[in-house]
């Protein structure tokens, strides 16, 4: 769907907030401007350390493992015109062990996401 048509539909339905859940595509500038401070996304690691284009899913978890980090995180942030650079709203972490793999790191991240994302979104609305 064309982003202009999407914006028209959002406005026609009087949508106040856009809640994304790990959305990977770059949001067009006119949408981020229309929903400035009203569009939120979740990232499966600490921002800004593990953010930016190409840092998603298993790529993030592999980077965390390669860095030897002792914890992993989630970041809930506002969306702006740059990948993963919107204002951070909330971060939470969980410990890692030397035995953790990118797959077990992903499981720990999913647990954090399921625990905190609904609460944070509810607090914004």
UniProtKB/TrEMBL annotation:
<feature type="domain" description="Formyl transferase N-terminal">
    <location>
        <begin position="7"/>
        <end position="121"/>
    </location>
</feature>
<dbReference type="InterPro" id="IPR002376">
    <property type="entry name" value="Formyl_transf_N"/>
</dbReference>
<dbReference type="InterPro" id="IPR036477">
    <property type="entry name" value="Formyl_transf_N_sf"/>
</dbReference>
<keyword id="KW-0808">Transferase</keyword>
<comment type="pathway">
    <text>Purine metabolism; IMP biosynthesis via de novo pathway; N(2)-formyl-N(1)-(5-phospho-D-ribosyl)glycinamide from N(1)-(5-phospho-D-ribosyl)glycinamide (10-formyl THF route): step 1/1.</text>
</comment>
<keyword id="KW-0658">Purine biosynthesis</keyword>
<protein>
    <recommendedName>
        <fullName>phosphoribosylglycinamide formyltransferase 1</fullName>
        <ecNumber>2.1.2.2</ecNumber>
    </recommendedName>
</protein>
<dbReference type="Pfam" id="PF00551">
    <property type="entry name" value="Formyl_trans_N"/>
</dbReference>
């Amino acid at each position: 769907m064309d982003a202009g048509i999407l914006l028209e539909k959002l406005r026609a339905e009087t949508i106040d907030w856009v809640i994304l859940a790990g959305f990977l595509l770059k949001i067009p500038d006119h949408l981020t401007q229309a929903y400035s401070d009203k569009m939120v996304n979740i990232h499966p690691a600490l921002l800004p350390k593990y953010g930016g284009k190409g840092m998603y899913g298993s790529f993030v978890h592999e980077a965390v493992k390669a860095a030897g980090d002792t914890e992993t995180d989630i970041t809930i942030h506002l969306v702006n015109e740059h990948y993963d650079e919107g204002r951070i709203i909330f971060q939470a972490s969980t410990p890692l062990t030397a035995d953790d793999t990118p797959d077990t790191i992903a499981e720990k991240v999913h647990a954090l996401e399921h625990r905190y994302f609904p609460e944070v979104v509810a607090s914004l609305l």
